[in-house]
Amino acid sequence: MHSTDIAHAPTPEPATGDRRRWFALAIVMTAAFMDLVDVTIVNIAVPSIQRDEGATFSQIQWITAGYALAFAAGLVTGGRLGDIHGRKRVFLVGIGGFTVASALCGLAVNPEMLVASRILQGAMAALMVPQVLSIVHATFPAHERGKVFGLFGAIVGLGAVSGPLLGALLTEGNLFGLEWRPIFLINLPVGVAALFLGSRFITESKAPRALKLDLPGVALVTLALLMLLYPLTRGRELGWPVWGYVSMAGALVVFAALVAYERAKGARDGSPLIELSLFRVKSFAAGIAVQTVFGVGLGVFFLVWTLYMQIGLGWSALRAGLTGVPFSVAVSVAAGMSVQQLVPRFGRKVLQAGALVMAAGVLIYLAEADHYGLGITSWQMALPLVVMGAGMGLIVAPLTDAVLSEVPREHAGSASGLINTVQQMGHALGLGLVSVVFFGVIDERLAPAEVGPAFVDGFTHALGWVAAVLGAIFLLMFALPKRPAQHVEGAARAEEAPVTGEKEPELVP
């Protein structure tokens, strides 16, 4: 164990009389909302972007995967930069950069510029988002934080529901003839206001003893993921060349080099990017596997689902967005029930039930899509989407706490940051796998009349993969604690995690 006991470092208790803290809260919550909405808002607009810009399907994958990859690679470093240089300063740099990147996305003249701008946007989100709960922790006294974190939960739910609808309305509205571009340009006035108000109302704070940066570790993680993802997304278009397989095999070598480097870095100065000793905790190692695989499943489903409804079935963005509302509502309701009522009584079984319920919803959807074909309606999709949403809600809310429940207290911050990072990496990998599990069963040249049936076949094929992923998650969950009786203590640890600069998992979309 080489990490310093940062979770217990003495920090002055914030004052309760300063009204500015509520303005600061509104500003950082707005930033968190922007990030959450930005992920879901883009998914619904992807078919419009593909149509208007003539983007290839691999470019479409990178518009979403590039953001997730940059976000994942920069999360832990973003938190540590805030600890070292000041959370307010890094937050303002992040939100300023996020706003500029949003403008570049909205003004992109070709798919290549849009992909590059999305990668920049993800990198800026990695600076901005980790500061959110750190600023809250430094701004609010302990007795007010419960109420504040409750507000964050509401914001997360609102972001999940409103993102697809907002994206659909902005895309369908075709404001000023700009087609899909307003989904990015809407961030400009919000970002400028947050930048101005944040500079006035947010109080600066730093960690008493911040961990050092590990830029070589970030470089190795990014290189390994690129070597894995780039051949996956381009392989189909290029006829699966030999260099692609060499690159994917080489990614494993780079990951091995990362482990060796992180072990040496931990022994040298106690501030590795990845605290390898955490993986000796069986429940944490299993939980990280669950988070990664779950991210893969969600990455595959959400992109394929959007392409299926809008390109395969020919639905408008607004109809697709409205069709997803039962899913979002079911996730929110089930998440609230799982944490407050079910997990305290039934423990790990709730998470496993969630995986099985979600898999059941996927299989119902598969059966309906196969049976009704191009004639399927939104209301026929409601049942599988509600079942899927309920299952997902049973997993997402209590999973982080189950993963953290046996982690040593002094490593809670590092563990929280790692959970977020692997979830985003899994998401990026899932988006890359869309080339294999969806486009891999669709012919490259289709007559207009063949597009619909081909996309329905691709969707059902991808759903089979998602169901298999959920089955794997169910099995992995046997390694989680049977009853995280410490889940209250775990929540307290997670609440303290922002002091370390590592971000609370629930804020990641």
Kindly describe this structure.
With 509 residues, the protein is mostly helical. Mean pLDDT is 85; it is low at 1-12 and 485-509. α1 (20-53) packs antiparallel against α4, α2 (57-85) runs antiparallel to α8 (215-238) and α8 (215-238) packs parallel to α15. It contains 17 helices and no strands. Helices cover 77% and strands 0% of the residues. The chain starts with 19 loop residues before the first helix and ends in a 13-residue tail after the last helix. It has helices spanning 20-53, 57-85, 87-106, 111-139, 142-173, 182-185, 187-201, 215-238, 242-269, 282-312, 317-323, 325-346, 348-372, 378-404, 412-437, 448-476, 487-496. The longest helix has 34 residues, at 20-53.
Keywords:
509 residues, 17 helices, disordered N terminus, disordered C terminus
